[in-house]
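Internal ticket - ligand job 214, erythose-4-phosphate:
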Amino acid sequence: MKFFIDTANIDEIREAHSMGMVDGVTTNPSLIAKEGRDFEDIIKEICQIVDGPISAEVISTDTEGMIKEARNLAKIHDNIVVKIPMIVDGLKATRRLSEEGIKTNVTLAFSPLQALMAAKAGANYISPFIGRLDDLSQEGLLLVEQIVEIYSNYAFDTEIIVASIRNPLHVLESALMGADIATIPFSVLGKLAAHPMTDKGLKAFLDDWEKTKK
Ligand code: E4P
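stdout (structure tokens):
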């Protein structure tokens, strides 16, 4: 499973990258806004750090506007993947961008049929938002399971980026289902590595080592 980091914060990206845990980065307008810096400057800086797919999202909601923005974003770096919202105009833009060879990540997917349509439109990636479904008492991971099955039934190349991840179980279950990618917030990445028995065991080893010096 590939790990993307779901942040626009440069310090978080550098830290996760130094752990060898960053195969790509996803951003969205809210994450960019949190940084209080110019959008393109942030995306350019991320591209200098990470050699992998970097998702940058369009703001337009009409097909022509999305295509225009996408072309500009794609010029920033070869690794740019343009995030397109899962609306009808977005599907039209995805199809046209796919013909132009511009990579797309169809975002804000909340149903398996949306994921099927995105794949048919030629999306390179689909982003099901599982945490936001859980927030509505709907099972986010069930959505991942259904998309994995549909894409496998019809051998679509579209990669599944499990998004809106809130906890380590989301990552574990997605990996067991065979989702291609988890895009993980920095706070959750740290939790994946942690185990109290590791800390307890390490403390015991170090305490015992101290005894050899007496
Ligand atoms: C994915 O690409 C999105 O940036 C992200 O996962 C949204 O997650 P949220 O529901 O925590 O905002």
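Auto-summary: The chain has a mean pLDDT of 98. The longest strand covers residues 80-85.
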